[in-house]
Design goal:
Helix content is about 70%, strand content about 0%. It has about 375 residues and is mainly alpha-helical. The chain has a single domain, classed as Up-down Bundle (A middle domain of Talin 1), CATH 1.20.1420.30. Helix 2 packs across helix 11, helix 4 crosses helix 10 and helix 6 runs antiparallel to helix 12.
Length: about 375
């Protein structure tokens, strides 16, 4: 142990989670003044950084793809709790909050996180490689989930408006949970090798690759983390506990600043859907930072796992949870997407199919995804 490391972890990583929780307790239920608002924003940023650090510690201990799955599941579970809480207290004004937040999460992960990872990774390493089978299977499940849960309600006729009837909502919740459960089984047990990072392109590895024309050259990457000793079980458990503390703080602080966001949105005359977009952006900050850091280390498969896995977790867990919560939630539950959102989703699916079809990605593909994401943000503010 040194002055900066305790139990194999930096002191700041141990101090930030409880401090962020203290800031959350101090600010919860209060009207944020200028000083408290700055403190909340600082605590939010610090909690995000600490969450990424502890997620990487856990990931190093359990190995991929379990590490990215833990982060995606943890963030999504707390995101679901936040959505249900806001819907319970928001009344009819929050009837479309679940739809707006889930769709925003899909656009953020499939265009924002993926595009940013491709751009920063290609700027440092040039062409990056990933596994086609893993990416395409995740994209197929994500497309089916969004279509069955968010597109179909616009066209069903059993309930008025873009809503499911009770039976339809139950069916959507069950199918979402089944598809996500099967995906997790395939990712972690049946075909776990599909989701492991591409470490090299040597002839031995090529036998397990998806592309027959993969170049037989070694991919330059930062192997410091790969060769470092895995943390002990004790350290990993401490990091897992602190990860959940960080994520609770991130979501709680995001909820704390949401009234200020709603006031700003109303003052600007923007649609209330912007609130769902901002909430999704704040909640997905830890995964964004983790995906970008993985891309910088030339581990694009980890970035893809985080991006698509987060989208799957957001839909596959939110829809069943909302279906159960609707039993006691009052007011309508609007799930169906509008025409503009369906066009953006279709563009995202087509673009992602073309990006993930070859197993290689360049700066161009990343820029395209970021432009689609920019269009989503612009049209959310100016529909």
């Amino acid at each position: 142990m040194t002055d900066t490391v305790v139990h194999g972890m930096p002191r700041w990583s141990l101090a930030v989670p409880p401090l962020a929780l203290v800031v959350l307790l101090l600010s919860w239920g209060r009207d944020l003044g200028a000083v408290l608002l700055i403190l909340v924003c600082a605590g939010l940023g610090a909690a995000v950084i600490a969450a990424v650090h502890h997620a990487e510690v856990v990931a190093h201990r359990v190995g991929e793809p379990f590490g990215t799955l833990i982060l995606a599941l943890a963030v999504t579970i707390i995101e679901v709790a936040l959505i249900v809480t806001l819907m319970a207290s928001g009344g009819d004004k929050a009837s479309s909050l679940a739809r707006d937040t889930v769709f925003a999460a899909v656009m953020i992960t499939c265009n924002g996180i993926l595009g940013l990872s491709l751009v920063v990774g290609s700027l440092r390493h040039g062409t990056q490689e990933f596994r086609v089978r893993a990416s395409n299977s995740a994209l197929a499940v994500m497309t089916a989930l969004v279509t069955l849960s968010l597109v179909l309600p616009t066209f069903t006729t059993s309930a008025p408006g873009p809503q499911f009837s009770t039976a339809q909502l139950a069916f959507a919740g069950v199918t979402s949970l089944v598809m996500y459960g099967v995906f997790v089984f395939v990712q972690t047990i049946r075909h776990r090798d599909y989701f492991l990072p591409v470490l090299s392109s040597t002839p031995e590895v090529r036998r397990h690759r998806d592309l027959e024309d993969a170049p037989a050259t070694v991919v330059e990457e930062d192997d410091d983390e790969e060769h470092a000793s895995a943390p002990s079980t004790k350290v990993a458990l401490i990091s897992l506990g602190l990860l959940f503390v960080c994520l609770i703080s991130v979501v709680g602080l995001a909820k704390t600043v949401s009234p200020k966001l709603e006031s700003a949105v109303e003052s600007a005359g923007a649609p209330l859907a912007v609130v769902g977009v901002v909430i999704a952006l704040l909640v997905l900050l830890p995964e964004t930072v983790a995906a970008v850091r993985a891309a910088l280390r030339n581990r694009l498969q980890t970035s893809v796992n985080l991006a698509l896995g987060s989208a799957l977790a957001s839909i596959g867990l939110t829809i069943p949870a909302i279906a159960i919560a609707s039993i006691w939630l009052s007011g309508p539950l609007v799930l169906g997407l509008g025409g503009k959102e369906m066009v953006l989703f279709a563009l995202t699916v087509v673009t992602s199919m073309l990006t993930l079809a070859t197993g290689r990605a360049t700066l161009l593909q990343g820029a395209v995804h970021l432009m689609v994401f920019s269009a989503f943000l612009f049209l959310a503010v100016s529909p």
